[in-house]
Amino acid sequence: MPRAVAVNVAANTNEPGFRGPVYPDGSFAYVPIPESAETLPRERYPVDEPLPTYADLDLPFSLPDDLYGTPVHMDPEFATVHGRDAATYGDPYAIKSGPIATLEPDDWLLFYATLTLRPAGWDGPVGDGCSATPEPGAVDDDLAPEWGAYLFAGLRVDRVLDGPDRTEASDLVSTNAHLKRDPFDARVVVDGDPDASGLFDRVVPLSAPEGGATANRLVTDLSSDSGNGPWWRRPMRFDEAATETLLGRIDVA
Fold first, then answer.
1. What is the pLDDT of residue 77?
2. How far is CA 61 from the centre of its chain?
3. pLDDT at 184 over 90
4. pLDDT tier at 251 (50, 70, 90 boundaries)?
5. DSSP code of residue 88
6. What is the average per-residue pLDDT within 1-22?
7. Where is the Nucleotide modification associated domain (predicted)?
8. Residue 125, preceding peptide bond in cis (omega within 30° of 0)
9. Which letter does DSSP use for residue 19 in this model?
């Protein structure tokens, strides 16, 4: 039976300065963070493709004009999402790479993000007087009222490389964003099944309906995390029984 690790990714209030949206019915948009590291010249990428920018993303809302030309760190990537063809992830941080490195084929690497509640049909732009909130009665009762932490995607593991060099990583996950960085900085890279991996149809809340900072039972009862302090920034491990319960809550788009 598979196990799972969940890690925090995607846009947040530090990078690029706002969270992605979650809508009253639990649908959402995946917004990657900006690329913050130095990158190689394009001719040295493992694959012939440009460094994507926010203008390349398929988002249902508009962004501030000055953000469209900003390069994005497209990680994780999923087939058919934002124009990508593969399912990969890389991570440079020991706190996340350690748990990820323990995953085996057919285990799950899950992704969660802090998302801000927006009205249905909200079209932005972020931070320009359009950051409206929906009427409470229109919101599904398992969503947090302002912001919350939500599982939104999963990668079913084909192979994990712990401590790879650039050549090893390039052979396995040639399109991963860390291979565009100079120097290459991923402590771990994961290649996923592109057909089984992807965005969920609906978020799975990790926050309680009372508020984003309060962990629900998926965190406190099923994961390795206590739910105390800033739990929404930490990786979480799920054993086989917990993963079975968790996967029962998830539909992969």
1. 98
2. 18
3. yes
4. low
5. E
6. 96
7. 3-246
8. yes
9. P
pLDDT at 252 over 90: no
Q: Does the pLDDT at position 79 exceed 50?
A: yes
Calculate mean pLDDT across residues 207-230: 98
pLDDT band at 233 (very low <50, low <70, confident <90, very high): very high
The identity of residue 77, as a single letter, is: E
Q: What is the Cβ-side half-sphere exposure of residue 244, based on CA atoms within 13 angstroms?
A: 3
Q: What is the pLDDT of residue 131?
A: 59
Checking phi first, is residue 164 left (phi over 0); if not, alpha (psi -120 to 50) or beta?
Answer: beta
Distance CA 144, CA 24 (A): 10
State how far Cα 11 lies from the chain centre. 8
State how far the Cα of 78 lies from the Cα of 41, in Å rounded to an integer.
Answer: 24
**Average pLDDT of the chain to the nearest whole number:** 95
Kindly compute the dihedral angle of the four CA atoms of residues 95, 216, 60, 15, in this order, to the nearest 10 degrees.
-30
How does 120-155 read in b/e, with b if 16+ C-beta sit within 10 Å? eebebebeeeeeeebeeeebeebbbeebbbbbbbbb
Question: Helix (H, G, I), strand (E, B), or coil: what is residue 174?
Answer: coil
In 3D space, the residue among 218, 208, 220 whose CA is nearest the CA of residue 243 turns out to be 218
Q: Which residue has the tokens 């900085």?
A: 185
CB 118 within 8 A of CB 132: yes
| Token code pair at residue 150 | 């939500």
- Ordered DSSP codes for 100-152: HHT--TT-EEEEEEEEEE--TT----TTTT------GGGS-TTS-SSEEEEEE
Comparison of pLDDT for 137 and 12, the residue scoring more: 12
- Measure the CA angle with vertex 124, ends 25 and 75; round to 5°: 75
Distance of CA 243 to the CA centre of its chain: 18
